[in-house]
Amino acid sequence: MSLVYSASLAMLTITLPLLALAAHYSRPLIGVLTALSAVTQLASRLGSAKAMRYVTDRNVVAAAGLTIAVSALVLVWSHQVVIFVIAELVQGLARGMFWTGTQAHVVRSRQKAVGRLATVNFVSSFGLLSGPPIAGVLSARSFATALWVAAALGLVAAVMAGTLMARLDVFAAPSSGPRQNVWSNPGVRVGCWAGTTAGAWRGLVGSYIPVALRAASESSTLVGIMVGVANGSSLVGTATMGVIGSRHTRATFVAGVVATGAGVALTGFSAQQAVLVGAFIALSGVGAGMLQTLGPATAATAVEMDRRGDAVAVAGSFRAGALFVSPLGTAALLDVASLPAALAIAGVVLGLPAISAARSKDWRWKLDVRKTSDDHLPTNPKR
């Protein structure tokens, strides 16, 4: 199911900015439109955690498939700015429901969360890998065709979620304020910082990295291939996390952040050289793939079982927030800098969390529980 849904999402990630360019929207406006999806994704992630105390997580995921189909179909109807705004807002709602519901579903197992999340993310990455090239080829012929195919995949994912996912009970209501207690856990905070860098990278891959390639006179097909390279390298990062697991967490975090930031920073300046831009996009994708698995897994395994949904949602909200800020911040930079320079500044900012990682007290928690089973991790930050 995740494979099919991710293919639909990846197709929209490349189709929407290309459609906006074809509609003669300005580059800053494209960044703002992309950032809008993160607004509803942020609210959707936190809202989904509450919803899963009343409806099953698989129903939340099925609703996400239906919603992303709607976000594609409205653009078949019209390309006006107001319709673009609606499409981006609805897409953000779908993304928040899908990732929160799927990750919460996976970490409820008594098996290790890192390995299970890595498996799901690994399979999902094949959808993210195949979607952009398909969207690039279809968009070169007809944007409507690309949108119809993306919508159809979303509907298929909804049916698969409703029929194939395990029937798990709703999450039990916590005895006290969940968000305050969840955020106070150092492991959750580590997961949030990992999600922030991964989310910012995803926001740029869905906005200004394709725009930078088009500005360098690259074809829509090549743009789709390059975004596919980004998603494919993310798959490699996810597979790497599946091998590493919870070992060497600080080193993994630093390596992931540095690779993501450096790759983004160098992409804009190499946009006219396909081999170089492919290498830098791949570098950033590997780092982001590691972080997108490390983030929710670290957050979820830091708390007791009945609060794992809340922990996943909080870590995901930081990812969604970064998904909003990165294209919006890059759009603001375009007033004073060229697009390659703006991407370079964004890459440097993405790498900043690595500087504080060595001194952060939060890592003492993770180091203390390396040899502890995922299902018996301490929940007291002072322990």
Compact overview of the structure:
The chain has 383 residues and is an all-alpha fold. Helices cover 79% and strands 0% of the residues.
Ordered list of secondary-structure elements with their pairings:
Layout (H helix, E strand, L loop, with lengths): L1 H21 L4 H25 L5 H21 L3 H27 L5 H29 L1 H22 L13 H6 L2 H20 L2 H8 L4 H25 L4 H19 L6 H27 L7 H26 L5 H13 L1 H5 L4 H7 L15
Helix pairs in contact: 1-3, 1-4, 1-5, 1-6, 2-4, 2-13, 3-4, 3-6, 4-13, 5-6, 5-10, 5-12, 8-11, 8-12, 8-13, 8-16, 9-10, 10-12, 11-12, 11-14, 12-13, 13-14
Structure overview:
The chain has 383 residues and is mainly α. It has one domain (2-166, 179-370): Growth Hormone, Chain: A (Up-down Bundle). The chain contains 16 helices and no strands. It has helices spanning 2-22, 27-51, 57-77, 81-107, 113-141, 143-164, 178-183, 186-205, 208-215, 220-244, 249-267, 274-300, 308-333, 339-351, 353-357, 362-368. Helix 3 (57-77) packs antiparallel against helix 4 (81-107) and helix 5 runs antiparallel to helix 12 (274-300). Residues 364-383 have low confidence and may be disordered.
H/I helix tally: 16
Query: What is the CATH class?
Result: Mainly Alpha
Q: Determine the N-to-C terminus distance.
A: 39 Å
Mean of all residue-level pLDDT scores: 79
- Helix and strand content put the structural class at mainly alpha
What tags apply to this protein structure?
383 residues; mainly alpha; Growth Hormone, Chain: A; 16 helices; globular; disordered C terminus
